[in-house]
Design goal:
Layout (H helix, E strand, L loop, with lengths): L2 E5 L2 E4 L4 E8 L8 E6 L6 E9 L2 E6 L7 E6 L4 E6 L8 E7 L10 E6 L1
C-alpha cells in the first residue's frame, strides 16, 4: 500500500512562492499518474495539477486557477512528486495533498498552505 507524506507548506504573503514535496513509500510511484489536490475550508477537494509518464513523454495538466503559476514535477528515482507554487494568491490557501490519479484509497496528512494578503 502506498504511503504518502506531504511537506513544504507554510505561511507566505501574496505573491510569494512555496515548493511542496510528496514522498512515497510502500510502492514505486513511477507506474502511476500522480496529482496534487487541495481542499480549502468549506470546499470540496479539487485536483490542481497532474503528471503522467507516457514512455519518455510527461503529460501535465493544470486547473485553470493555477495555470501559469504552479509547476508539477516528479523524480521517480527519489519516489517524490513536487509542486512549485509561484505568485501565490490568498485563494490558494488550502491543505494540499498528493495522491494518485485516480486517487489511492488512503491519503496523507496533507500540508497547510496559507497565503496572507
Amino acid at each position: 500500500q502506498v504511503q504518502l507524506v506531504e511537506s513544504g507548506g507554510g505561511l507566505v504573503q501574496a505573491g510569494g512562492s512555496l515548493r511542496l514535496s510528496c514522498a512515497a513509500s510502500g510502492s514505486t510511484l513511477s507506474i502511476y499518474a500522480m496529482g496534487w489536490y487541495r481542499q480549502a475550508p468549506g470546499k470540496q477537494r479539487e485536483l490542481v495539477a497532474s503528471i503522467t509518464r507516457g514512455g519518455s513523454i510527461m503529460y501535465i495538466n493544470y486547473a485553470d486557477s493555477v495555470k501559469g503559476r504552479f509547476t508539477i514535477s516528479r523524480d521517480d528515482a527519489k519516489n517524490t512528486v513536487y509542486l512549485q507554487m509561484n505568485n501565490l494568491k490568498t485563494e490558494d490557501t488550502a491543505v494540499y495533498y498528493c495522491n494518485g490519479l485516480p486517487a489511492f484509497a488512503s491519503w496523507g496528512q496533507g500540508t497547510q498552505v496559507t497565503v496572507s494578503s
